[in-house]
Amino acid sequence: MSRSRTAARRSWLLLSLACLALPGCATDNWVELGGQRYGVEVADDEAERARGLMFRDALPEGHGMLFIHEEEAPQAYWMKNTRIPLDILYFDDARRLVSQQRDVPPCSLGNACPSYPSNAPARYVLELNAGEAARLGLRDGAVITFAPTLTIAPAR
Question: What is the reported pTM?
């Protein structure tokens, strides 16, 4: 095995072990999008959605946060106290990509941070590291698949 491959495996192992220490990170929850699988933390109540990825200095490669809303509706997210540039991807009840906000910059302006709305009603929002949507070549209409371990309450 090459040195670079060995180093990469060690890095992956260390990152995986570090993930175990983060709340919500050590789960079997994942989503698949554009042929790529991402481990996800789930934010499915108001408090978790409000906190999101605030105050984090990094989001591990291959990971994201999935926000689940009670019903499909226009959504808008902002980057208040978020230190990581993100792609914000909006999905409808049928789990089709209906809107994308790519390469959204961090914001330290508190309540003066701008909002990034969906262009159509959405129920699910996936935040990934900035550049992932472009790397995957995502287009509206792409379908997201959820792990069987993700329990989604029926829409109200």
Answer: 0.82
